[in-house]
Write a structure and sequence with these properties.
Blueprint: H1 2-29, H2 36-68, H3 70-92, H4 104-127, H5 132-156, H6 162-182
Subcellular location: Cell membrane
GO molecular function: manganese ion transmembrane transporter activity
Keywords: Cell membrane, Ion transport, Manganese, Membrane, Transmembrane, Transmembrane helix, Transport
């Protein structure tokens, strides 16, 4: 029982790290004059993408694990490290991001862009044989909640937390990657 609780806690922490980019971009988008119904819709769509992308990644990860065994595990840890460093790096850059409007194709592009890292993490979790339904529920629910929080908070503040939240998410993924790679060192 404690093993399941530990796995849920780990997955929720990973899901929170992955949802940080949705949260931080949601902060910026929250500055649009959005109705609560639109905020609800955006959160649901982001949540769906945070289910579909790790599912695709887990499927690919399980295939790689069966084909390449320990090498696939090493690559999975390396992917988390690279993703974590990339998230930290992008949070430190000073460029202005292009604003994507949260309607139509812009919303789908936004959802895809903030869930791409979920594919990589899903790949790693597939390699390690994580419980698929548990991963997808944790990732989908957390991404939806963080998107809503970012959008609602964005209506109230000017984005002062955005870069820091993405850096925190990157640091969490980096730590998990190092932990997974430590097995091989």
């Amino acid at each position: 029982m404690s093993e399941v609780v530990g796995e849920i806690m780990t997955l929720m922490l990973m899901a929170a790290a992955l949802g940080m980019d949705a949260f931080s971009v949601g902060l910026g988008m929250g500055m649009y004059k959005l109705r609560l119904r639109k905020i609800f819709e955006i959160g649901i769509i982001i949540g769906i993408f945070h289910v579909l992308m790790p599912l695709a990644g887990m499927t690919a990860g399980r295939f790689l694990s069966e084909q390449f065994g320990a090498l696939a595990s090493f690559i999975g840890g390396l992917l988390l490290i690279i993703l974590g460093v990339q998230m930290i790096w992008s949070s430190l850059k000073d460029d202005d991001e292009k604003v994507i409007t949260p309607v139509g194709l812009g919303l789908l592009f936004f959802a895809l862009s903030v869930s791409m890292d979920s594919f990589s993490v899903g790949l790693t979790l597939g390699i390690y044989g994580a419980k698929t339904v548990l991963v997808l529920v944790c990732f989908g629910v957390m991404a939806t909640l963080q998107t809503w929080a970012g959008l609602l908070l964005g209506k109230k503040v000017r984005g002062w937390l955005g870069a820091y939240s993405e850096a925190l998410g990157g640091a969490i993924l980096l730590a998990f990657g190092i932990k997974l790679m430590a097995v091989f060192l």
